[in-house]
Amino acid sequence: MPLVRTQDLTKEYGSAAQPVRALDRVNFAIEAGECVAIMGPSGSGKSTLLHLLGGLDRPTRGTVWLREIDLSTLSDEALSRLRREQLGFVFQFFNLLPVLNARENVALPLLLDGVPRDEALRRADAALERVGLADRALHRPAELSGGEQQRVAIARALVTEPTLILADEPTGNLDSQTSDEIIHLLRRSVDEWGRTLVIVTHDPRIAAHADRIVFLKDGRIVDENRLSGQGDAEELRARLARVSAS
Asked: Phi/psi at 100 (nearest 5 deg)?
C-alpha cells in the first residue's frame, strides 16, 4: 500500500457562483521512502496540493489517504494530532518563533504534544546535532543566518520522527550554496533517516535530487519523470519550460 495516495483531489476557492479551481481531480501515489518533487509554473496548484497532503487545508472534493487513514473523515482535533505525530513541515520562511532559541523552537512540537520538558529538550538537542547545529542551540533566530534558520526548521520537522516530511520551497529564500546544503540535508532524511519527502520547488537544481518529479499545470498533473540517481537539472529546466508553454 502506498504511504500517501489521492483520488480525484479537487480544491476550489471563491464563491459557489464563481469558483476558482486551484486543483483539478489529481490522482497520484507516493511510496514510503520516496523523495518526490512537485514542479510547475506559478499558480499551478503546487502549494495547494502540499497543503492538502498535509491536512493543512481540506479539499472541496476527493480524498487524501495517509496509509489507511482517510483525512477527510478526521475531526479538526484528530487532524491536528495526526499532523503533530506523523508529519513534519518545512516552509520557505522558516516560521521560527523569535522569542525562543533554536533548542526551544525544535522542542516546541514535542512540548505541545505533552512530552515532558526535559525529554523534549534532550530530543531537540539530538535533532540539532543531526543537522549540524549543536553549537548554535542557544541562539535565537535573529542571531542565525538564513541557512541556519532553515536547518533549525528541518530539525523541528524531524524531532517528532515523522512518517512524511512536506517541504514548500525550502530553498526559495536562500543563496545557491546554502540551497545545496539544505537539499542535501533533506535528501539525507530520506536516505539515512528513513523518511518520505515531498518537496515543492521551482528550482530544477533542487528537483534533480528527487526520485520522481510531478509536473502540475492549471491544477492538473500533466507530466511525470522518474529519475535514476541525481537527475539532470538542465533536462528538468527544459521540461518545465515545455510544460509551462503547452
From this structure: -105, 145
Q: Above 90 in pLDDT, residue 27?
A: yes
- What are the residues whose beta carbons fall under 8 Å from the beta carbon of 24, sequence distance 6 or more? 10, 45, 218, 219, 220
Strand 69-70 versus strand 29-30 pairing type: unpaired
Using CA atoms, how far apart are residues 244 and 246, in angstroms rounded to an integer?
6
SS3 157: helix
Give the contacts of 111 (CB within 8 A, at least 6 positions apart): 117, 120
Provide φ and ψ at 74, rounded to 5°: -85, 140
Ordered structural domains, the chain, with CATH: 4-245 (3.40.50.300)
pLDDT tens digits, 111-150: 988 999 999 999 999 999 999 999 999 999 999 999 999 9
Write the single-letter amino acid at 68. E
Helix (H, G, I), strand (E, B) or coil at 167: strand
Query: Can you tell me which residue has the cell 539532470?
Result: 232
Residue 15 corresponds to which cell in the numbers above? 464563491
Strands (E), 103-186: 164-168
Residue type, 119: E
